[in-house]
Amino acid sequence: MVCQKDALVQKVCEFYEKISSLESLKPSKDVDMLFTQLVLTCIPPNPIDVTKLCKRVQEMRSKLITLCGEAEGHLESHYSTILGSFDNPLDHLNTFPYFNNYLKLGRLEFNILSQHLTNIKVPSRIAFVGSGPLPLTSIVLASYHLTTTSFHNYDIDPSANSMASRLLASDPDLSKRMFFHTKDVMDVTSSELKEYDVVFLAALVGMDKEEKVRVIDHLAKNMAPGAILMLRSAHGARAFLYPIVEPRDLQGFEVLSVFHPTDEVINSVVIARKLSVGMPVQSLDQGLGAHVMLPCKCAEIPAFNPLNKMNMIEEFAAEDRLL
């Protein structure tokens, strides 16, 4: 492996040194400034393949992702506490500085999901694994897009679930459709998982490749055949911020699409369908070549949609669909 001595890698390494030397990753002027600068550095589309960097940079990236996850957890807890102090917390969600990103990501994921729901038009039950103290994805989807669906949010941290449920207590609709379970995803049984039409897996559930693959394997063994799995990944320089999920990691699933946003929405979105036993994997790009880049159909949305200025890529990679 060759360590690319380019300006981007050097800059990210410098941010890592500064961030790792902080006494605390809780929100503060220094923490906010460093992470904002890091994110702005990694957002522009970049052809870099972080998996081909040298071992030293790979190790730095792994540690940086862990630090980003820890800082994100503190940020969500901080704003969940602030929102929980209002009589009607959901009326003040724009207090959270990245709320607009969640609106865009929610719309993106809803559009992708809608394209691939075959047997049902609207899922009745969705599981979100790794919902945290500020479950904005579930809130956005339940409020704007899936207004009759029930959402079951799983998090290993009881305090996160307590904070999250407090945000919804005063809402007459969501308080009846949003449920919180304090449980490790690896302990969620087949009888439970088979109840869900769709399972979302948060980006920071499984902070390294091995842990992520273990979680995916558990879902593959226990989800209902035909159910949809939606995951968040990262592409290009954004992979310094979040773990990468590659189609080849999704054993037991048919990968349907991979979407790479190119605006301020950081995460890529992967959608896959749980295979039935003996079900053949059908390639979406038969006759189109091994690696095809197509315009994202999710950009074809009404003018009021926050994604209408979003430039995204839809990627089908046949060589990565290894089952």
TrEMBL record:
The keyword Repressor does not apply. Its EC number is 2.5.1.43. It catalyses: 3 S-adenosyl-L-methionine = nicotianamine + 3 S-methyl-5'-thioadenosine + 3 H(+). SUPFAM superfamilies: S-adenosyl-L-methionine-dependent methyltransferases (SSF53335). Pfam families: NAS. GO terms for molecular function: nicotianamine synthase activity. Gene3D superfamilies: Vaccinia Virus protein VP39 (3.40.50.150). Keywords: S-adenosyl-L-methionine, Transferase. It is an enzyme of class 2 (transferase). One of its GO terms (biological process) is nicotianamine biosynthetic process. InterPro entries: Nicotian_synth, SAM-dependent_MTases_sf. Belongs to the nicotianamine synthase (NAS)-like family. Synthesizes nicotianamine, a polyamine which serves as a sensor for the physiological iron status within the plant, and/or might be involved in the transport of iron. This is Nicotianamine synthase. It comes from Coffea arabica (Arabian coffee).
